[in-house]
Amino acid sequence: xxxEDTLWTVLGAGLVLLMLVDVFRTLxxxxxxxxxxxxxxxGFWLAxxxxxxxxxxxxxxxAMAAAIGAWAALAAIGWALLYLPHLTTGFVHGAGVPQGxxxxxxxxxxxxxxxxxxxxxxxxxxxxxxxxxxxQAVTGFGLLTATVTWILQMYPALNRRRALAHELNLxxxxxxxxxxxxxxxxxxxxxxxxxxxxxxxxxxxLLSFHETYYFREIDQRGSLPDTVAxxxxxxxxxxxxxxxxxxxxxxxxxxxxxGLADVLRGKFGHSGETSSDVFGSYELHHxxxxxxxxxxx
Length: 297
Fold this sequence. Notes:
This protein has helices at 3-28, 35-48, 59-83, 87-90, 103-114, 127-175, 185-208, 224-239, 244-268, 275-286; strands at residues 91-93, 122-124. The protein is mainly alpha-helical. The protein folds into two domains: 3-144, Helix Hairpins, CATH 1.10.287; 147-289. A two-stranded antiparallel sheet has the order 1-2.
């Protein structure tokens, strides 16, 4: 290969490697996120802040689709550049298939292989090229199944967050201004301990599936940023109680909320010395869905 072919090969290998690293960090690495996927999610999030109401709620699903599209594009273009220097000598064409050596044909071959369609009118003859084509087909199948799994994993995590917000709203409506002090201490303690477990699950979800953070809620009752401060009120009320069991439940809920605040502070850049400050920033970041106010962060 001459210098130009070598440059195309290096560039193609780099694009394929970037795709593999980003997919690995986003879909397979615990508590990780690929630089490309994270940049896309963040970019759509910032752009959606200029929208109002329901329009901004579709930003996160669109960002996920854009990330998947970016991975597919990197794979298709990367392998096309790997094939490009070898089109005229490393591949045979079926009868009636015109032989070309341009990027369009290389991209067509790459797309057909990546999608595992495999029409077979263009076939590699060199053993190394045969291996590369087979690896691309395997990667294409793996990318398809991994992205479907990724999408399916998002919505249970979102539902857990929405369920916690609904639980807090129902508790507030049922208990009234007195809160946990209006209940039997033992019963209230069990409710708060269950709530603490749900808060911990939401924190784990945000660590494992950081993309869920960028989903905005249209229904305020399902919006955790709007309701998490009430959980702090319940924890404070319980810790002021004279009942040791309820005090302990309050401390557990407060610890779970502090853990959630640490995730929001460390993973998503919310500032604040206390958990209340962090939750205030979290609420402001999502406030523009209510009343059309622009968020600020």
